[in-house]
Amino acid sequence: MNIPAQWSKVIADIWRYKARTILVILSIAVGVFAVGMTINAGQIIQRDLNTPYRASNPASLTMHLSPFDDPLASAVEGTREVRVAEPRREESAELDRGDGEWMEIGLAALPDFERVRVNRFTLESGQAVPGLRQFLLERMSADLLGLGVGDTITIRLPDDGRTYDLEVAGIVHDMHVMPIAFFEQAAGYVSLDTLGWMGLDTHYDTLYVVTENQDDKAHILEVAGMLRERVIEPAGYQVYSVEPFEGEPGSHWASGMISGVLIILTVMGLMCILLGAGLVINTISALITRQVKQIGIIRSVGGLRRQITAMYLAMVLFFCLVALLIGIPLGLVGAKGLAVAIGGALNFDITQVSLPLSVALFQVGVGLLIPLGAALAPILSGTGIPVYDAIYQDGNITTVNKGAVESVLGAIKGLPSPTVLAVRTTFRRKARLIFTLVTLTLAGATFIGAFSTHRTMSAKIAGMGDYTQLDVELSLPGAANRYTAEREALRVPGVGLAEGWYQTSARFVFPDRSESEEVIATAVPVETATISPHLIAGRWLEAGDTNAIVVNEDLLEKVPGLAVGDTVTLWVGEREREYHVVGVLSAHLTGARFYAPYEFFTKVNDAGNLANVVRVRAAPDRFLSGPEQEALGERLVKRFEDARLGTGTFDTQYDLVVSNMGNFDILLSVLLLMSGLLALVGGLGLAGTMGLNVLERTREIGVLRAVGAANPSVRRVVLFEGIFVGLISWLLAVAGSWPIGLALSNVVASTVLNAPADYLFSLRGMWLWLALVLVIATAASLAPAQRASQLTVREVLAYE
């Protein structure tokens, strides 16, 4: 086949420098892979998360009421603003895990399992309708517990400790339950007849409401207020709490969080391509520098500049096309893996993995335009050199003026010669050095920033956990006398301090008589020892306070504009009363709430000396370990059962705080995955740079060999140069990690916790990156160093 001369040259250059070609292709392919993985995964997740979620007809709001029957649900559904109102009975119990441990399980009873209209779930195996002494188990709970259809489990009721054996009649998938891995609560569904057999009330206590306008949260809250005032309370029923939909109406509660994280990952993927473009610039610049004479000769015999430019652009185009052939399929595989991992964690199915045309075109666009655009500047610069200068210029010899580095090295006595030579040659090609340093610096800054983000989020959760200055929190559904409850708790071996609190729900009443959604009202002793208030404004409660309250940051999200000094109207139970905001606490893990002085709040709200929460500590100066807290909680439950104060449930500090930190390990792993891709591109860039440097210094290496330099000495020069570049990039990465880590922390905190976070730098990440960058630098320099040590005098003399 007769191939034109210019294209033969392109093919020859690509084949002659195979190692360099592979490095450039891989660096571009990594970026194409990263971008395709994150964008495609995002589309797959949003499709398979929100589409079936909307199809399940999610409730616009959930209302917890005093016991009611079907006529009330029909009356609510008969209002103009409501599309569907479906009642349920919700009970909390404990499930025997089979290993001697008990797990909390939520049991929901529905009026008609064959016609579920709100928050629908799907049958996976077994039967759809549970019979007497049977129940349906949510699939994540079944997987965690290792249960299947036909298995029998033991359920324990919290009030009196009675146990019942129930058969698993079916396994269902319910997207509306919180993942059991995050919240450690199983989910099951029983008939009202089974609840009656267990001795429980068979009246409904929860109403799921779907409003006509499901996209306006303010409208949904207005409907909730209207239903309370015009339908529910006039019928003689009490509204205990109202839970509007969290997040954007019509979207899964985790949709916004996932989108925020995927945006971060997509930006990091684009950074991979940009860094790969830096290697393209270095490679093309070095190639043109070495081929200046060839360019001059081609132009002297009639070759046009545009023809020469097309030759080098064709070479870059080849790099891009091969990279796309590698990166696009791998991006599809990565998208499937990422989507399946997130789907498994959040309990939804990935139905189909495909490559949308829009994603493929985006990958092609960035995979072509960014490298070609990056290469255009050195190509135009190199092909524009005058013919005379091109022919009579030696592109392989660079005059190096003695600069600051050489002056400093000259002033330091006793440095090994390979070290001095390595440092000097490092700064010879400053433009190439800059591109290499930018690549490694961004990779390192992102790596350290990911660790700093994890440390920041862990500290944020720990700070939010100041609310849990306790070992165990015992909840008493029926409430008990505060002083009796504290006395019984102190009788439990290992308890050194006990505090009784009273919690209920409340609503803010605005001047236009509209109401907020439900928030938690907490009556606490003003001298509490089980909370460490982190005030961001105002003060904490003081002895003698009456209608004073302290709100937390979470509540400010529900009631925007609230500030210290404001007078607010609160509806608590059946009473409406004014309160003064005296302080604002930082956000913590228990949601929107306010705190009021115990004596005053319980008195004016007819709660007397009741307590429905008992918080205990074993010692004032330390916390128990997780297993110790669990054992203490079980002793508390047993003591209160024996004292006939009711069977409560408990949470430990470990459950409330420490286990939550583990959830961010998943996010850290994903961030580190992307940082690893950046590090890979950085390593490829350094390997390419070292290979170019060795190639350009072939004659110099020959001189070293001629004056007696042994192979190990030549290898050390190249290795020291690579390690020195790695060390410089590490110093720059440490400095650059601050703004990158700060940006990552703010995005993650606002996306996941919906709260700001104080940035904390990670020393562990810094030292880990130092170790990793030294490994990268050494690995990237080994092959060029070996090649340099193997150059013979004949090769040096023949080198052009």
Architecture blueprint of SSEs:
Layout: H1 5-16, H2 18-55, E1 61-68, H3 70-77, E2 82-96, E3 102-109, E4 122-126, E5 134-138, H4 139-145, E6 152-156, E7 163-173, H5 180-183, E8 185-190, H6 192-197, E9 204-211, H7 217-232, E10 239-244, H8 255-290, H9 292-300, H10 305-346, H11 357-383, H12 387-392, H13 404-411, H14 417-426, H15 430-464, E11 472-481, H16 482-490, E12 497-509, E13 519-524, E14 535-538, E15 548-552, H17 553-558, E16 567-572, E17 575-585, E18 593-597, H18 598-604, E19 610-617, H19 626-642, E20 649-652, H20 653-696, H21 698-706, H22 711-753, H23 763-789, H24 793-798
Parallel strand pairs: 3-8, 5-7, 13-18, 15-17
Antiparallel strand pairs: 1-9, 1-10, 2-3, 2-6, 2-9, 4-7, 5-8, 6-7, 11-19, 11-20, 12-13, 12-16, 12-19, 14-17, 15-18, 16-17
Helix pairs in contact: 1-10, 2-8, 2-10, 2-11, 2-20, 8-11, 8-15, 8-20, 8-22, 10-11, 14-22, 15-20, 15-22, 15-23, 20-23, 22-23
Question: Which overall shape is indicated by the principal axes computed on the Cα atoms?
Answer: elongated
Strand order in space, largest sheet: 2-3-8-5-7-6
User: How large is the count of helical segments?
Assistant: 24
Stretches where pLDDT falls below 50 for ≥5 residues? 394-401
Helix content: 40-55%
Structural class: alpha+beta
Rg computed from alpha carbons, rounded to a whole number of angstroms: 34 Å
β-strand number: 20
The separation of the N and C termini measures 29 Å
Q: Quote the average pLDDT.
A: 81
How big a fraction of the residues is strand? Answer: 15-25%
Main beta sheet? 6 strands, mixed, barrel
